[in-house]
Amino acid sequence: MSKISVAQAVSRLRSGEVIAYPTEAVYGLGCDPFDLQAVEKLFHVKQRPFEKGVILVAASVEQVVPYVELFNTDWEEEVLQTWPGPVTWVLPAKEGVPDWVTGGRKTVAIRVSDHPVVQALCLAYGQPMVSTSANITSHSPAMSCLEINTVFKEKVPCVEGCLGGLDNPTQIREAKTGKLLR
Hints:
Layout: E1 3-4, H1 6-14, E2 19-22, E3 27-30, H2 36-46, E4 55-58, H3 61-64, H4 76-82, E5 87-92, H5 99-102, E6 107-112, H6 116-125, E7 129-133, H7 145-151, E8 158-159, E9 171-174
Helix pairs in contact: 1-6
């Protein structure tokens, strides 16, 4: 079984690899969102269509400021009241956020997580990372490193930790309208 520490996971992220880690409800798959080859590996492992885009997860609001329109907006207060926490917001993307992150849209989905492992990973990495459920598309998400190793045939290293206690994946809300998307 391929269990790794946070430091080892950060080294793997910097090398363009895909990692698995616990989140608020399920295990997630992550990689460097600005490394096209890493994102392609993630989509390949997950068997996910490339045009869907990805969610970014961060340790702090400061980590997401370069990528989204947040401050001095009608939605700033509502978003900031939920972060850090288990709410993913679809926000207007700033110039330069790659299409493979946005799925070709003018928005990007971002969560500032309060999960201790996610916090540790993003703080050590110094930037947001991709966060998508650890599963083959349309299958149930993995709930442990053991399941990660079974599903992905020990090809995805896993940071072990406790899940955050949510029964369902985090909410996804559209910032401009407040609409609940998931």
